[in-house]
Every structure is written in C-alpha cells, then in structure tokens.
Amino acid sequence: MSMGTDQRDLEPSGFRLKVQEAFQLQPVLVPLYAILLSFIVGGILIALIGVNPFEAYWALLRGMFGSKDNIAASVARSVPFMGSALALAFAFRAGLFNIGAEGQLLVGGVTAAWVGTWAWMTDTPAIIAIPIILLAGAFGGFMWGWVPGILRAKTGAHEVISTIMLNSIALFLVRWIVNSRDPVILRDLEASVPRTEAISDTAELPTIIDSQPPLHWGLFVMLGVCFLIAFVLKRTTFGFETITVGTNPHAARYAGMSVDRIIILAMAISGACAGIAAASEVSGTNQLFQPGTFALIGFDGIAVALLARANPIGIIPSALLWGSLLSGAPLMQQEADVSIDVVRIIQSMVLLFVAADAIVRYIFRVRGEAEAHIKASTTGWAGQ
Amino acid sequence: MAGDDERIPVLDVRGVTKTFPGVIANEDVDLVLHEGEIHCLLGENGAGKSTLMNVVFGLYQPDKGSIRVRGEQVQFTGVGDAIDHGIGMVHQHFQLIPVFTVAENVILGNELTNGPFLDINEARRRIIELEDKYGLAVDPDAKVGDLSVGEQQRVEVIKALFREAEILILDEPTAVLTPGEVDEFFGVVRSLVDQGKSIIFITHKLREVLAVADRITVLRNGKVAGTADPSTATQKSLANLMVGREVVFQVAKGDAHPGDPVIKITGLRVEDVRGARTVNGLSVEVRAGEIFGVAGVEGNGQRELVEAVTGMRPKIGGTVEILGQDATKMSPRQITELGTGHIPEDRNKHGVVGAYSIADNLILNRYFKPPFARRWLRNEAAIASEAEELVAQFDVRTPGIHVAVDNLSGGNQQKVIVARELTGDVKALVVAQPTRGLDVGSIEFIHNAIIALRDKGVGVLLVSAELDEILSLSDRIGVLYRGRLVGTFDGADATREELGYLMATGAAPESEEAAS
Ligand SMILES: Nc1ncnc2c1ncn2[C@@H]1O[C@H](COP(=O)(O)OP(=O)(O)OP(=O)(O)O)[C@@H](O)[C@H]1O
Ligand SMILES: [Mg+2]
Fold first, then answer.
1. CATH assignment of B2-243?
2. Ion ligand 2, residues whose Cβ is below 5 A away
3. pTM value surpassing 0.90
4. Mean pLDDT in consecutive groups of 10 residues from the start of chain A, 384 residues
5. Interface A-B: count of C-beta contacts within 8 A
6. Where are the strands (E) in B251-386, listed by range?
7. Is it true that domain B250-339+429-516 has CATH number 3.40.50.620?
C-alpha cells in the first residue's frame, strides 16, 4: 500500500495541528460571549426599572474589586465553589451527573467539625491537625459520594435521583446532629443557634486577609485540588479509564476496564472534592460547623462547572467570577438600589446561554463544530 | 452508454477541492452523472469518496470548484438546498431514530401537516405508493429499531424518495447487507434507474461494480485516478487503478500445522439481549496455528458466540477454555491478558472511542501496562512512539497520530482496531467481520497479517458474513445454523455451493455431523 506522499507530506508530524489546538479560542469563546450577553440583557432589565445600568454595574464592579478587602472577600466567596464544581465535573467526565454536592458538602463539613473538636486535637501541632481536618472532610464527602456510586453500579439506580435523595437525607441528618439537645450529639449548648462547638485552634487554616468573609489558606488547598484533579484526568491511567467510561462505556468494557469500579470511584472522588471544600470552610472561615453556611453552594457548583465545561482548571476562573458577583452584589443594592436578585438572574442567564450555545454562536458568529459533528455521523458503516 | 456526452448531465461536478486541517480530502475532482445511470465511485479507504458526496449533498462547502445540477450552477449552504435540488443521500451511517416508526422517520424534517396536526395517514399513503413503485417492502408502522439492517436501509431510500430525490447518493450501502439482501437491494436500484432516477453508488466490492455500473470513477488520494468502462474493465484493472499497483486477490497461504487447542468451546449456550437463546449447545476446538472460519447467515448466533468467548456476555451453560485455562467466567480483561485479541463486529460501539486520538485508541486495552504506564502515570512518549509505529505498519491514512478517530475514514478506523488487536502478545484471536468496509488493498494486507499470525502458531476463530473471506482464509470451516455448528469442512475442500446450501437449510450430510 503506497503512502500517498503528495498529500501526507503536508503534515509530517501533525505538529501544526497541535499548535492550532493550543491556540484554540473556541472552547473559551462561548462562555465569554455568554457572560457578555447576560450582562447586556441584565442591563436592559435594570434600565427597565428606571436605573442607569452603567451606574449599577459600576457599583457592582467596585463591590467586587473596589478595594483590597473587597477583592479578598470576592476570592474568599469563590473558594468553596471550586470544590462543589469539581464534584460535578469529575463525575461528569465519567459520564455521571452528580448533583449531590450539596449533601456531600454537609456531610464533609460535619465530619470535619466533629474531628476538629476532638479533645486531643488541641495538643496536636497545626501541621498535623490541619491535614487531619481536611482529610476528615474529604472522607465524609467521599462516603456520601460512594453511596450513589455503588447504587448506580450495582443496582442501576440513577445517580440523579439518588443524589437528590441523599441531599435531603444529609440536610436532615446534619440538622439533627447539630440541633439535638437530648441526646447532645455535636451541638454547642451555649450557642443560641444550632451549630457545633468551635474546632481546635490548631486545626484552623491561617487567614491571609481578614476580610468579610476572611481569605484564608483554603484558597491554596482548593487550587491544589483543582490542579490535582486536572493531573489525574490527563496524566494517569485512572483518569484515562474515567474519561473512557464517560465517553464510550461499551468500548471501555470491551477494552477490559471495570466500568462498575470506575463509576463508584468517580462518584466517591467527586464527593471528596466537595467534602474537602467544606472542611476548608469549617476550618478557615467559621471555625465551626453551621449547616446554613453551605446552602446553595452545591447547586451553584453545578453552574460553575458547566460554565467551565467540566474542565478542572477552567473551574478556577469560573468560580472566581461566580463568587465575586455574589460578593459584589450588596454594594450594587446599596448604591444603585438594584436588588441582589438581579445578579442571580444574570448568573442564571449565563448558564442558560452556555447551555443553549447555538444562540451565542448565532449572535456572535462563533464558528460551530457543526462540521465535526456531521463527520462523526458519516464515517463508518451503519451502526447495527 | 458512455460516450454520448451531448446530453446535459443531471449532476456535473467540476474541479472540486476540499481540505481539512492537514488533509486534502478532494483535489480538483470532476464527476459527471447522466440521467438514468448508475455511476460507481471507487477508491481506497480515505480516498475522499464520502467527503466528495458530502460536498454534493451540501454538508460541506467546497474550497474550490463548481457543481451544476441539470445545467444550473448551484451553491449549497446546507442539506436543505441539496434536497430542494432533488438530491438525496443514504449515509454510511444511518440517520434514523430507532423508537419512531418507519412513517414517522420518513416524514421527520418534512412534516406533512393537516392544520396543526401531523398528517401521518397521508404520509403512510405516499410511502406505500413509493414502496409499490420501487419494490421497497417495509411495514410503514414498524418501529425502526426492530427492523433488520437491510430494511433500515430501505427506509433511508424511501426517505430520500419521499423528498422527491432524482439523484440518489448511496454511500457503501452493501457493506452491511447479507448476500441475499444485496440481491434484493440491486433489484431496488434497477427499478429506481428504470424510473429515471440517477444514482451514485460507492462500494469496495468490485464484483458489484461490474454488475451494476454504467460508468466508473476511481479516486486515489483525493484526486480522480481515472474513469473506467464497466464493459471492458475487470476486477483486476479496477483494483490496480484504485491502489496504483498489482493487487493479489487470492491470498497465498501455506499448509496449516495445527498444534494444541487454544480455544475449546464445549456445549456453549448463550442468550441474546432479548433473552432468546441464540447459541445453543455449540462445541468447537480451534487449534494453535489454524484458522477456523464460522460461516452462516447473519443472526444465527455469530454475535453472541463471539461476545461469549471474549467475556463480553454471560454464558447460560457450557464451558470455554482458552490456552488450557477455564475462561468461562473470566472478565474481558482477564481473557485479553491470557493473550487473546478480539476484533469486534461493531466498530463504533466497541472498537473505538471516536473522540479519542488514534494514539489513545491504539493502547485502549493495554494503557495500564508498561511501557504505556509507569505505575499510575501514562507514559506519553511510549504511547506516541507505539502509535507512530503501528500507523506506519498498518498504513493508517492520517495526518498525525493525534487526530481523533472520528475524523478518519471508515476503513482507516477499522485499521486502527486491527492494528491494536493483532499486535502484542496474542496467542488466540477472535475476529468478527475483520475487513468490513475496507478496500481491496487493505483487505489483502489484513488477510496476510492474520495468516502470518497463524503461521506463528496463533489460533484464529474467524466469523464473517463474506463467504469469500471465509473460503480464502480458513483451514477449517464450520457452518453456524440456529446456534449450532451443523457441519465442519476442510478449508481446501469446501465449495461456495455446499456451504451456501448448509447455511440456508441447516441440513447436514449425515457423515459430517457437528464439531471436530
Ligand atoms: N471532518 C474531518 N476532519 C478531518 N479530516 C477529515 C474529515 N473528514 C474526512 N477527513 C479526512 O479526509 C480523507 C477522506 O475521507 P473520506 O471519509 O472521504 O474517505 P472515503 O473515501 O469515504 O473512505 P472509506 O472508504 O474508508 O469510507 C481522510 O483522510 C479523512 O481522514
Ligand atoms: Mg467513506
């Protein structure tokens, strides 16, 4: 079989392909335009209620980044979203839709707080106590992700249903744990609101900037986790298995991969990502566990992850945007009298546009991947 | 028919060039289709046939060149334009929705309405009319998912005719059909032509080309290598034109020197997805250094047999021994690790991960072993160098090893699978439809590769719907009928007629009762 030199010599190594890939703006373009579009629509909304949208946005912007403290607060608000977004993203790469971050955060958080209040922790140096509390959170989340994983693998129960149920179970469970006075489980009896006692000082993540909320070392922990997950997916054999199962489970099985094992592990690791984020909050922000602080962080994580297209590194800017918007909104409300809900609406629209990317592609003339899709369905013979 | 070029062609493609990143898929291609003719498009895997047809059908825009339909210059921006100009296409990969009925599939995208409601009755009436006119028998109310591949193909044809196609493009329609279905299919094609339709027909089977073509165009490396007249062309001359060298049709094969059994199946019983027992008490021994061919009409248990032996499907009864070990309950991974290669029947579902690069697909079943992995880490350098080597050795036509397999032509996807499964430490080989969709040159190559493995002492279980393939490769041949082997022949003695009779009737001559 002669190699057709005339056309193959064009690209002897496929090098140019690689370069093209590296400079591909395509994947980032749609989310960026989606954000722009949402702000435009949000601006129209603000104008409709009789406020100058530029003034409102200016206030929002200053709320987000107007001072050192505001910047720190914005970043601090973003950190937990990294964990809850990873919880969706990792499972997503294995073809699973984990919407149980909410519950995984709660279980991770309560586990971390429980371990953090162990008496001997006060005598343990921070260098040991901090990893222990983080691992405890990760472990709690791991177990809470493992359950829907094993249910899916062994009984076929769909993870969407089971994670929703486990969210409710987790919510009521931790409420009971921190509420109950008889018997006292973890409740701080002195406190007027239900919460655990404060964790040992040694288990606290050091603060970087004392903003509101404080920016602490949890930032580096979660950045580290993002990079670790990216590394696992890209460079390890387990990551290869995970993505294969997520892309074509039939081929994965044919290639000898244990699909069940990977599903279980992927769900559990997803849970661990949420759990470690919860531990970082318990340890660095509140120094105790109070269920209300985690409300919606899990669900927003879904949005953050989708905006990042389930890319663990993409989650970092995506979470920063999300947290900053939430952190800046109060100033917009104060100064321009525009409700915080408008930011929520904008956020939801971003997601809507990312999901319905055809709209964005049409408006901004982003070239579609249409031809690639067509190709996928025209090679090979009829699938039987 | 060729020669009288005064007529205005129904389709006139001039100087079409279409490039993809790193690949010139079509370069300055001309193609002329006259009314009422069957024009065969031939070419190696990756020669650019599907791409050219996708350009004509409006799926791709050409970089250069012009297309005229009945003398009118056209510029299609999408499939809709092509359909409006009376062009219909049946893709290599069907585009039907399995849970819809035939009628629903046919009207999809072209809904007949009666006020706000779908007028399915009117659609049914027109479908039945078309079926009668062209001899396309399908029940309009059947669910497409329940139809055989041949029937699904007819639905695709009906779909095109329903949209009043005058020019029909058929991309490798016969690759998936059983011999009987192929005959029926040609019946349909003839009646279409008789009624004035014009057809472009892509195939790799030269016998079919010579049987039906009015004109032949051969593509090579994206360019027109030449045209041929079916009245004077031979299979050999066409193959030479396609490949650019001599092709040997009869594989050269020395005597087999069979050794110990490598695959020993005893009393195997397997159920298919619907719970029907399709393999029912099958026994066979495949010995080292021989090729055992399983012939049979599709649907007699071939798929379940292969899946059971390779650990993909549980067994209801019986045992499978591979290389002396009881593999009845082993997982696919354990069976691979014994030294078994497996070329699966369903390329896209099992064989490749389409979104993955060629390199990743080539290590899909050994990514966890050195040198491709160092403990838990992927060794990208080793993966790349393996890929470079296999791509060269198996002549996968691609601009690079990082190209996604989805972007390869159908035949080159198959070569990726074959390359993966025939290399490494194989001692037993289970092969299903290994050359489906491949060009003559690649078939020759893969056949030689399988024979070379046999000569090195590998035991091969070959399942194929191509009787010619079975006959030219096998040392022994078993006929599979309703889940059992009803006769075993020596490869050298068996004839087409004998096998065909047994495949159809299952009636075995007394003396040659089952198994070996
Ligand atoms: N969407 C695409 N992106 C990149 N390359 C492509 C794309 N589609 C086709 N190609 C390349 O163009 C060439 C021609 O492919 P095409 O599918 O037309 O071949 P073919 O003649 O139909 O082959 P086969 O007989 O195997 O189906 C191949 O080298 C293929 O890899
Ligand atoms: Mg093709």
1. 3.40.50.300
2. B 50, 410
3. no
4. 36 52 67 91 93 94 95 97 97 95 97 94 93 98 98 94 96 94 87 90 95 96 98 96 95 95 97 98 95 93 92 96 95 92 92 82 65 36 31
5. 170
6. 261-271, 277-287, 291-295, 317-322, 325-326, 340-343, 373-374, 377-378
7. no
